[in-house]
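Per your request, structure below.
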């Protein structure tokens, strides 16, 4: 691993302080897992429900290192070429026409050189020059298929890829690799063996209060506690999409903008769309009762 990481993050507490300074409050297990991923180094697979802060963890790590965050969003049908590279065909065609106008002879090597290479996320992360490693976020790996998972396994093992026209490209400063999954399908054991693993759960009420007050400055503790309690109650219902940290921050921001000093049933009903993004979920919450949701502001 880059000496830059060792100097910046000599121990777990230095990482905790760096994340905290950015407003990312992680528990002991997550901080330790991130530290090990950085220092061993080894890819880290983060799983958990949508909205618990998996992607934000990668963003915060990149900010602590002063490194670029390079994100590959996975989806059904994603293939290796889209993750690695493609050739800039319009520029190649322009090069051919320019050579013809000058009566110059172009070879295949001239057209398939790095000048015409478009680096996609995986190759961009592998070729990042440093001194700090790039942070490669492979987001929602569970949405990709088995073939892509097998390709990714090879890349993680070798920190290198082969481009037929150029040859093998090996990372001089291997990236920090964080993978996230919402568990829409099971990942292969081979991939899991390559990775450290950490499950991110919803934060407890007190930690959620700390998070939202840090992310929305000026929020009173009374309001934050009321909101955290309401969110906790909502998660007991059978919702299509339970509110995560991001939605909670959105709700607090809306309440602050409206100048709401404390939560009540009326304002909750008016702002429920900041928290619940499905009509059926909102109706379920209303049927259960807005007074129950607020519950006197007690979490």
């Amino acid at each position: 691993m880059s000496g830059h990481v060792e100097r910046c993050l000599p121990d777990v507490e230095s990482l905790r302080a760096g994340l905290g300074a950015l407003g990312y409050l992680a528990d002991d297990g997550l901080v330790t897992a991130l530290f090990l991923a950085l220092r061993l180094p080894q890819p880290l697979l983060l799983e958990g429900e949508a909205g618990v802060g998996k992607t934000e963890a990668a963003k915060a790590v990149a900010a602590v290192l002063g490194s670029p965050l390079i994100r590959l969003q996975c989806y059904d049908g994603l293939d290796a070429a889209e993750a690695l590279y493609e050739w800039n065909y319009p520029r190649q065609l322009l090069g051919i026409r320019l050579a013809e106008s000058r009566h110059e002879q172009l070879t295949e090597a001239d057209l398939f050189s790095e000048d015409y290479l478009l680096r996609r996320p995986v190759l961009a992360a592998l070729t990042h020059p440093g001194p700090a490693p790039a942070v490669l976020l492979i987001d929602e790996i569970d949405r990709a298929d088995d073939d892509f998972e097998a390709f990714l396994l090879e890349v993680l093992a070798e920190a290198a890829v082969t481009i037929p026209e150029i040859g093998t490209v090996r990372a001089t400063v291997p990236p920090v690799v964080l993978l996230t999954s919402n568990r829409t399908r099971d990942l292969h054991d081979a991939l899991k063996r390559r990775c450290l693993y950490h499950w991110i759960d919803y934060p407890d009420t007190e930690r959620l209060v700390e998070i939202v007050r840090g992310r929305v400055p000026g929020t009173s503790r009374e309001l934050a506690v009321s909101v955290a309690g309401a969110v906790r109650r909502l998660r007991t219902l059978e919702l299509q999409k339970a509110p995560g940290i991001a939605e909670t921050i959105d709700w607090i921001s809306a309440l602050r903008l409206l100048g709401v000093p404390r939560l009540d049933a009326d304002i909750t009903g008016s702002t429920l769309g900041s928290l619940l993004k499905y009509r059926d979920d909102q109706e379920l919450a209303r049927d259960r009762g807005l007074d129950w949701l607020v519950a006197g502001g007690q979490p």
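The chain has a mean pLDDT of 88.

Regards,
D.
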